[in-house]
Specification:
Layout: E1 7-13, H1 17-25, E2 34-39, H2 46-53, E3 57-60, H3 66-80, E4 85-88, H4 100-108, E5 114-118, H5 124-127, H6 132-149, E6 161-164, H7 165-170, H8 182-192, E7 197-201, H9 215-236
Parallel strand pairs: 1-2, 1-4, 2-3, 5-7
Antiparallel strand pairs: 4-6, 5-6
Helix pairs in contact: 1-2, 6-9, 8-9
C-alpha cells in the first residue's frame, strides 16, 4: 500500500510464457498488494506458469477476446478486489516494472489521477530498438490526435498505464472496442471526463519475444485512433453523440 491505498498490478497476457517470470520478479512487492493476470486463451503455458509463480489472481478466457477485451476483464477484477491504484503492466517485459513506484506515488499523492509511461519522452523508444517506421507512425498519430483533441501528450500509444480507481469507475470502458484501439478510446474517455493525465519517461525494449502487431492490424489501429479523436471532438462540440462517451450506468 501507499498512503493507505491498495496497489494492484494487472497483466493482460497472451503467449507470455517466455517473459512472464522475468517481468513478475521485478514487480516491487513492498508496495504492490496484489497482481492479476488475465490469459486471453494463450497457445502456450502462460496461465500455468502464472499459478506456479504465485500470482494472486489468474483468470483464463475460454476464447480469445482481444487486447481490449482482456483489459476489460483486468479492470473489472481490479475494481472487484478493492484496488485504489491500478497499474497495467504487459508481461512481455517490454516495459520495466521498476517504474511502478514512481507511477503509483504520483497517483497516491494526488498529483495526477492517470499516469502513462511514455517511450517518447527522452530517447527511450529508438534506443530501445523501436523500428523507425513505428516511431514515425507514433509521432504522426500523436501529433494529429493532440491537434484534434486539443491535448498535449507525448504519446497515446504506450501500454504502460496507471489509474486512480475513481477514473475507471467514471468512464464507460466496457463500451470500448475489444481490439487494440481500446487503448486510445479509454484515453479519450478520460480526457472527456475532465481528468488530467501525467507522463513519466519510460525506457523500452524491443526483442523477438516482445509482443507486436502486424502491418494490417497496425493500419486498422491507426484508422481507429483517428476515428476516436474525431468522435471526441464532435462530441465535445455537441455535433454528435457516441456510446463510448455516454455516462457509465
Amino acid at each position: 500500500m501507499i498512503n493507505g491505498k491498495k496497489v494492484v498490478v494487472i497483466m493482460p497476457a497472451y503467449n507470455a510464457e517466455k517473459t512472464l517470470e522475468k517481468t513478475y520478479n521485478e514487480i516491487p512487492g513492498d508496495i504492490v498488494d496484489e497482481v492479476i493476470l488475465v490469459d486471453d486463451k494463450s497457445q502456450d503455458n502462460t496461465a500455468q506458469l502464472a499459478r506456479r509463480l504465485g500470482i494472486n489472481h489468474v483468470i483464463e478466457h475460454k476464447k480469445n477476446r482481444g487486447y481490449g477485451g482482456n483489459q476489460k476483464t483486468c479492470y473489472q477484477k481490479a475494481l472487484e478486489v478493492g484496488a485504489d491504484i491500478i497499474i497495467m503492466l504487459h508481461p512481455d517485459y517490454q516495459y520495466t516494472p521498476k517504474l511502478i513506484p514512481s507511477m503509483a506515488y504520483l497517483i497516491a499523492n494526488e498529483v495526477y489521477p492517470v499516469v502513462l509511461g511514455s517511450r517518447i519522452l527522452g530517447h527511450g523508444a529508438l534506443k530501445g530498438g523501436m523500428p523507425l517506421y513505428k516511431y514515425i507512425a507514433n509521432r504522426v498519430l500523436t501529433f494529429v490526435q493532440n491537434l484534434i483533441m486539443w491535448q498535449k501528450l507525448s504519446e497515446y500509444h504506450t501500454g504502460y498505464r496507471a489509474f486512480d480507481r475513481r477514473v475507471l469507475e467514471s468512464v464507460n470502458f466496457m463500451a470500448n472496442s475489444d481490439d487494440f484501439v481500446f487503448d486510445n478510446q479509454i484515453l479519450a474517455q478520460i480526457f472527456y471526463a475532465g481528468f488530467d493525465i501525467g507522463e513519466v519517461s519510460c525506457p523500452t525494449k524491443y526483442f523477438p519475444e516482445a509482443s507486436s502487431i502486424n502491418l494490417r492490424r497496425s493500419i486498422k489501429y491507426g484508422l481507429g485512433v483517428l476515428i476516436t479523436a474525431v468522435e471526441y471532438r464532435l462530441q465535445k462540440w455537441g455535433l454528435a453523440r457516441f456510446k463510448i462517451f455516454l455516462e457509465k450506468k
